[in-house]
Amino acid sequence: MNKSMFKFIHTADIHLDSPLKGLEAHEDAPVDEIRGATRRALDNLVDLAIEEAVDFILVAGDLYDGDWKDYNTGLFFSARMGRLSRAGIRVFIVSGNHDAAGQITRAMPLPDNAHLFSSKNPQFEILDDLGVVIHGQSYSHRAVTDNLAARFPGYDPGYFNIGLLHTCLTGREGHEDYAPCTLDDLKSKGYDYWALGHVHKREIISQDPWVVFPGNIQGRHIRETGARGATLVTVEAGRITEVEALELDVLRWVVCSVDLSGCDTSEQVYDAVRQALEQEKDLADGRTLALRLVLTGACQVHGKLHNQTPLWVERFQSIAAEFTGMWLEKVKFGTTPRTSLQEMFGEDTPVAGLLKSIRQIDLDGDTLFELVPELSALKNKLPAEIHTGDEPFLDPSPDKIEDLRKEIQELLIAGLVQHGGGQ
Amino acid sequence: MRVKHLDLNAFGPFTQRPPLDFDSKDPGLHIIFGANEAGKSSSLRALKALLYGFPQQTPDNFIHSYDQLLVGGCLENSDGQEIVFQRRKKRINDVIDEAGDPLDAGALAPFLNTVEPEIFETLYGIDHDTLVQGGEDILAQKGEVGQALFAAGAGISSLKEVTDDLEKEAADLFKPAGQLPRINKAVKRFKELQKNLREVSLSSRVWQAHQKQLKSAQAQRVDLEKERDQKNRELQRLDRLAKAIPELASLKSRKERQSALGDVIPLPPDFSERYARTGMEMRGADQQLQKDAKRLAALQEKRRAISLNKDLLNQAEKVDDFHQRLGEYRKGFKDIPILNGMRISLRREAAALLKQVRPDLDLDQVETLRPVLSRKRTIQALSSQYEAISRQLTQAQNRLRSAQKEGRQLTEGMVKAPQAKEPRDLVQAVKLGQKAGDIDGHLEKNKTEVEMNKQECRGELRRIGLWSGSLPELMDLSFPLPETVQAFEKKYHEIAVEKREIQKELKTAEHELKAVQVEIKKGEYAGKVPSEQELNQTREKREQGWQLVRREWLFQEDITREIKSYDPDRSLCDAYEGVVEQADILSDRLRREADRVANAAAFKARKEALLDVIAANTKDLGALELREHELHESWLRAWQASDIPPLPPKEMTGWLARIDKLCFKVGDILKKEQEIQTDELRRKELKHNLEKELASIGEEPILDGKTLGPVLIFAETVLEKISAQKVNFEKLKQRQDQTQKAIVEATQDLRVAQEALALWQEQWEKAFLGLGRTGDIPVIEAIDLTENLQTCFDKLKEADDLKKRIAGIERDAAELKAAVTALVETFEPGTTGPKITDLPLDQTILGLRTMLGRAQKDRAMVDRLDEEIDLLQQDITLTQKTLQGAQEQMAELLDLARCEKPEDLSGVIAAFAEYQRLQEKISDTRAVLARIGAGCPIEALAQQAAEVDADALPGRVESLARDIQERIHPEINSISQVIGEENTRLAAMDGSARAAEIAEEMEQELAKIRRLAQRYAVLKLGAKILHQEIEHYREAHQDPVLKIASDIFNRLTQGSFAGLRTDVDDKGGPVLVGVRPDNLRLTVDKMSSGTRDQLFLALRMATLESRLETSEPMPFIVDDILINFDDDRSCATLRVLADLSKKNQVILFTHHRQIVEAARTIQAEGCIHIHEL
């Protein structure tokens, strides 16, 4: 006798124990609040699954982070599976590009209630009590470029069919093109629900059938802003009646832009920033925030801000510390002077010449190190991690060079104007 | 752009100050001078506020609040456009037009040329601090050309600080070989964390190895436990057999003994008990029956002995009733005599009362008086009316009497009262006198005041001096007009100023002359300066010599005489040679010492010019003195008319003012004296009038003196007296009228009262009709009489009531006796002998009651005996039933035991008991065997026992136990320990987050490194680019700017430096040097600090000038930069600024008077304008 109504949670990209990036510790930083964020987000998932009494959980790949080797991570996951097992909740997992080759995935014995799909062929699992069949296939190695979906079998009539797959579909910005397939490929299978993973931002691709990326359960850097979590699906009499987004993140990443156009004094800057931070804090629903402050606007205080950026960062940090559970990730000084530099310095002044030099100087790759030999020494001294990742040190991409140029310009102009007398 | 005027409407110390007018033909050098606190700094701030708005905070709000601050002005740009506007301190709409309406914020854009305020201050403003800082910076850079040019060009006072800051911050961040800089530290920390991470990470291989070991140990333990269990089972079996064998033997023997008992009659378990109980029951019942029969007979005998009086018992209620009424009967007989006594005494009292009313009547006739009593209320009403009527009568009589008496007294009084006089004219005179007020006091005060003022004026006149005479004479004097005096003053002043200027110029010229002379002397001391003239003379001489040589040599002329005159001491050739050499030397020197030559020439020219100046000035001075003398003469003439020797005009202005004031005061005094005379005349007239009027009514005051007051007071007193007399007479008349009216009213009242009394008399007599008494009954007695009569009737009624009660008591007693007698008759009708009814009634009743009590006791006894007999008979019936039951039981028992008689029963019971005992023993043994067998049936156990050798059993048991204890158990223990250890190890691998936390900390450290490294790169690149640009700027601008700067520097140092050049320092870098006129090069560190300031100023002005070629001019605001410049260089600087101001407006703020003075001396050169605050 099938249950006429059942619920399941669809999650993906847990990247368990992968650290949060870009948060620099300082005196007032809420270090304890962000500790073990991915673990606590997983705990939230488990709590919610038990509370909602769901029947099973789908994990669509990247349960673990690729390079992570500490087996404790697997043990932690195993312990949480134990909790779910005691609550009678089954778990179905496929591996993705990050955890396909990971030692933890391979070595971890899964408890009885958890099932890891094979990486050789598409497999299916039938849940007779619910009238559900789950089709899925794991990655066999990191870079799977085959269309895995193509080999999935057609739907099994008389069952509620679910496809579980880690894929980039036809490509998603900021995500590698693994297991590519088209929406039509998926639709052609006739399944009721495609539980996808890989894309970290929640996205409902289609509602007929449902094709869903639930996003990751915890943002890990400033490019993963906003609420994060899993998807709760309710099925009644073989039809999906509700698809609900669950918020599970314990730390939320926010980019907070503050327009300082009207600010003439430092006090006004503090007030504007304090007000903006307060707003963000209110929106966060009590969560700890990792916040990037972006200052914008053409303003009187522009020069002041750029003359002593490290000092200002400290002041903003102490404002952030007034709100409990707020970590100032970075301050971007994006303000501009009231009038353009060209208008300010005209054509034929030394500063105008300086500005021109900054604009024209070649800051590309090696020339940089020739220009300032100390930078070579610094580069060699820095850990390898600084040169890789999303923001490598002295990134030679045109955007970054432009940013660097701008930073140099602001530094020099602020310094020169500061010493321009008459102050 | 230039500022045409600046309006300080409400700013700092200024309120609607007249505008500072900068509108001149060329842009001009405008010097704004103000002493300390005159508002120089405020006006500088006002200028900046006008152009760029008020800063957030300004110290210029000490008079005008922030919202009142207002500056205005007019700007003009190079296209000739003009804007007139004002600025308020506001965040929006701060720019307004003259009418106060807001102007568009962009309205100023065409004038400010998009120059931001900071940049304006940087490029177009210079103050003393910037200048000094700039100068010091040039020193710190050792005159590095690029830095100096760049800094001056960008208006940066301290470029070195900028570059130093960059380098310092970078050094704090990173050093390739350092430990302490922040990046070095962070990298070190990161590496430590990396190491920690490796240490705490758990590899899956380790975990799997432990898991495997645990599993194998667990399998081993399972095998061992299996073997142990098997051996334990065998051991148990053998042990069991050893215990079972003796039990099996005893079971067998008991079974044999049981079968020996043969057939046994089975009895129910409680049989013997039932047998004993039945026997006992039968015996008990027999005994009870005998005892009960005996007791029943005794009770029946006792009952028969008692007889009962039933009739009496039936009447018990009536007897009780009599007994109760007996009390009442006894009390009645006691009361009768008392009641009788009371009745008699009441009748006696009534008789006494009647006697008071009517002594002639006795009690039996009293009823005839009852009608009087019925009029009792009327009598009471009349007696109270009588009181009111008699009171009215008395009052009316009294009033009439007193009114008549007062009437008589008033008539007498009116006859005596005096007649008042008619003083109409006197009233008029008094009113006039009063209207004049306190004329005496007023006069006295004015006189004193006038005297005091006169004295003051005379004193003042003495103090002012220059003239003496009386006050009225003063009024007649005439003086020159103040305007005339002012005109003189102005003229004197003009002459003085002119004189001062000339003297100053003279002094300056003399001073300079001295200096020039010194310079000339210096030149002379340094050796005579060769002059063109000297060279010409020598050349001429050389030419003469040459002609002589030619003549002698070519034409062999005899020129001995000429030779002699040419040079008497030497031969011609020597002389000529000498002259040639001299000319060469001179021309060489002239060429070589051209500067000196030129200087000497210049000094000489200057000396001549100065001498001219001195002569001209001396002449001017003489003319001035003459003018001054003439002026003085006409001044004296102006005062001749008043015969006053005048002081200088300025002092006479003061003198005139004081005299003027005094004249005014004297005029006042004279006016007041006139007033006093008028007042005195008036007073005299008033006084005369009063005296006349008083006399006309015959009142003559005895007073002398001029004063009006006493006469006036006397007249007022007279008037008051007359009016008092009039009032008194009026009052008397009024009272007489009132008295007349009172007499009439009192007569009326009296008559009414008398009529009322007559009516009352009539009614009173009617009320007492029927009392039978003759004559008047006084009102007071009448009430008592009626009261007594009433009491008398009351008492008679009481006596009657008592009589009726006595009769009632006697009737009740007779009724009781009859009832008692009737009762007794019912139960002893024919009794002979003394009858109970013969006794007195109360004893008869008591006797009846005693008899009744006895009969009731007997009846209770009989009732109790009857009950007892009943109960006993019931008991006997029950006991008989019990006996019968017991006999039936016995019969049943005999039947069960299959016996005929009860005596046979005991044998049957004993046999059955033995059988039972054996059966129990057998059951016990079987239970023991079952326990030993632990589930193994006894038959199987017996089978096994039969199969084993009982004697070998203990040996086998022991060897098995030893194997288990000494081999298997230790092995299990050790393997368990292994399992425990592995479990512990695996439990320690608990999914700890330690590694993840370290990874997180590493990310935090990375973020820091990333930020600091980025900052380091920016700082280093910034510093590098800045250096490059400085160099670049130098290359591009060195020549044009340096050329202008060189020229300016030369002028600023007044030729002390010929100009500026670039040179190369030890390291090959370009440096700035000053060049002396003699080409000596001076590095900046060898210059004085003032000269360095001038160097920086020269560079700043040079860049400004070079900018003029490309940019719209903006006013150059110079704030007191000349503090450290000596007088000459200050003048030079002013000249240079004045030159600049031909193209670009220059506004110079200063609070040094000498700067202004200096500017005045060079005013002749054109465009300098001085504004004093």
Question: Can you offer a commentary on this structure?
Answer:
The complex is a heterodimer of chains A (423) and B (1173). The mean pLDDT of chain A is 88. Chain A is 33% helix and 22% strand. Chain A has a six-stranded mixed beta sheet, with helices on one face. The longest helix of chain A has 21 residues. The longest helix of chain B has 59 residues. Chain B is mainly alpha-helical. At the A-B interface, α3, α4, α9, α10 and α12 of A face α3, β8, α4, α5 and α6 of B.
How much helical structure, as a percent, in the residues of chain B? over 70%
Task: Tell me, rounded to a whole number, the average pLDDT of chain B.
Answer: 82
Estimated structural class of chain B: mainly alpha
The profile of the biggest β sheet of chain A is: 6 strands, mixed
Poorly predicted spans of chain A: none
The topology string of helices and strands of chain A comes to EHHEHEHEEEEHEEEEEEHEHHEHHHHHH
